[in-house]
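Let us begin with a simple case.
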Amino acid sequence: MNPLSIRCRLGDIMRERGLQNKDVVDLTGVSRNTITSLAGNATKRIDYDTLGALCRGLGVTPGDLLEYMPNVKENFE
């Protein structure tokens, strides 16, 4: 069975809107470290509270933030 890959599009959304980490922190209340990790796809999970805060603050849906990428192989250890 091939692993599923989900990519966070926060970095893309930030670039499209000209937002910096500080802007997203101010809009969402999510910590700067979390924003940095999510924007850089350097995390393996996201809490529902964080996802909800991002959706409210940025006016997006979970489907706007998360992208399913089939056939992407990851190294799970």
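The second case is a distinct protein. As before, the sequence precedes its structure tokens.
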Amino acid sequence: MRLHSLINFALFQVVWFMCLLLEQHAIVYSAVVIALMFYLSAQKKQDALLVLKALPLALLCEFIAVQLGLFEFKVDPLPFWLVFLWVALLLCINTSMSFLTNLKPWQAFAVCLLFAPGSYWAGSRFEVLELGMPLWQFWPLYGALWAATFTFILFLNGKIGEFVKQ
């Protein structure tokens, strides 16, 4: 199972780097990697339902962030490659990021608050997005929005898991 988690994590990193380096040109390649992630999933039904339910919430979070001026993409309001990046991330929740599902909600929120904005800061360094404010303001503001969204996605994942096991 540990190898499975490492493969899942590595595949997510491939999608992350492809999206940041290739942007719109990464879509086909990302789709192939995501198909492989789904093929390797040990919980296909739960993962499929999670993507269907959580992807709109994730993209709404991104849209709100753009509307609030936290950052902006080269493409208004959101680039299509961001959908693929989020799908890959959602496919990590029950595998390489499963440790988050064992945390209390406040702990998961804190982890996301501390670490998630770093990915967007890195995105700004790759020039795929531009932060709308200084990093010291962006980090806690976007971190709180992202953490609230992702903590809710983790809650939703738990409910989907209960439903699938019935």
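The chain has six helices and two strands. Strands lie at 71-73, 129-131.
Keep these points in mind for the review questions at the end of the chapter.
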